[in-house]
Amino acid sequence: MCAYILGIESSCDDTSAAVLHDTHVLANVIANQQVHEKFGGVVPELASRAHQQNIIPVIDTALKVANIDKKQLNAVAYTRGPGLLGSLLVGSSFAKSFALTLGIPLIETDHMESHILAHFLRDDEVRPIPTFPFLCLTVSGGHTQIVKVNNYFDMEIIGKTIDDAAGETFDKAAKIMDLPYPGGPLIDKLAKDGDPSKFSFSEPNIPGLDYSFSGLKTSILYFLRDRLREDNTFIQTNKADLCASIQHTIINILMKKLVRASQQTGISQVAIAGGVSANSGLRQAMMAMEQKLGWQVYIPKMSYSTDNAAMIAASGYFKYIEKMFASQELTPYARQSSR
User: Fold this and answer.
1) Contact 105, 74 (CB under 8 A)
2) Contact status, residue 325 vs residue 109, Cβ threshold 8 Å
3) With bands split at pLDDT 50, 70 and 90, how would you rate the model's confidence at 338?
4) What is the mean pLDDT of residues 51-71?
5) Span 134-300 CATH architecture
6) Lowest mean pLDDT among 9-13, 42-46, 78-82, 302-306
7) Percentage of the chain with pLDDT > 90?
8) If residue 180 lies in a helix (H) or strand (E), which one and from where to where?
């Protein structure tokens, strides 16, 4: 089915708009918010205000880059949740009014499901597309899940974090080391010059396929507290090795459960998605498993790993085909789908 889909993403601190022709990306525009850096984390009120400032120019730019008129759009897809409620309200309110004005269908999408569906995006770069069923490790600042993907609309969470997310652990570790926000990407950068075996941290012993990262955060905190008592320059002196060791531990925790999930389900098509899928160490670990275990590994393009509207539009396209349209009365959800 030939369709032009506008996607709008505003779940956290990035305002994004994308235009798809079926699953082919014509435009994917993202406006980042620098205002949060001095606070060491996202401030919800400031995020929603910035979304209000950014959303119209971002959508206008996306339409211009795609070289289409808004009247050519067949549907508007938006992130309904999970995310920050204030931020979600900006995107959902604009999507509703825009779709209503144009007289076209409105489509609500789930942020985490859309991360997975980013694997079906097409652009000028040829990349393999997974076939069903496949496993997807979705890792972000707020979520860590192993998902069995049976089709575009049938996704079963077979493992999840019982407390903190992997991305949150990266950011917390960075904050403890007094690294600037956002800390996760900086740990990844510094880790490339460090020794991942230099320091060891406790790994959780959680049954089944679930994760836990709260103990690791505590282990890092106490370890650094004790070392700093002995040497107040310890972090500065060992920064690269600390980053490499912390990153190695987090990735090791993630991969152990993912390997177990593959063994239990018998599925060897394995993907990663979400903001942490941009981490170079995790990408290397996935490729190593492809060589070691014979997996077929799917890693999203970097621009489709972090929050972006192209993935929202992709989810919207598949729902458009099935006429899975949304009501104007739907409200955003912060933590989990109300389905």
Assistant:
1) yes
2) no
3) very low
4) 96
5) 2-Layer Sandwich (3.30)
6) 42-46
7) 87
8) none
Q: 4-124+304-321 and 134-300 share one CATH topology? A: yes
Cα–Cα distance between 181 and 160 in angstroms, integer?
25
What CA–CA distance (Å, rounded) separates 116 from 128? 14
Exposed/middle/buried for residue 336 (C-beta within 10 Å: 0-12, 13-18, 19+) = exposed
- Tens of pLDDT along 165-187? 999 999 999 999 999 888 899 99
One of 3.40.47.40, 3.40.1360.10, 3.30.420.40, 3.30.360.10 is the CATH number of 4-124+304-321, namely 3.30.420.40
d(CA 145, CA 112): 9
Alpha carbon of residue 10 to chain centroid = 13
Q: What is the DSSP letter of 142?
A: S
State pLDDT tens for residues 118-153: 999 999 888 899 999 999 999 998 899 999 999 999
User: What pLDDT, on the 0 to 100 scale, is given for residue 38?
Assistant: 58
Give the residue from 261, 329, 336, 333 showing the smallest Cα distance to 96.
Answer: 329
Q: How far apart are CA 184 and CA 192, in angstroms?
A: 13
The pLDDT value recorded for residue 40 is 61
pLDDT of residue 339: 40
DSSP of 49-91:
HHHHHHHHHHHHHHHHHHT--GGG--EEEEEEESS-HHHHHHH
What are the residue ranges spanned by the domains of the chain?
Answer: 4-124+304-321, 134-300
For 29, phi and psi rounded to 5 degrees? -105, 130
User: SS3 for 161?
Assistant: strand
Alpha helices in 177-299 (DSSP H): 183-191, 214-230, 234-237, 239-265, 280-293
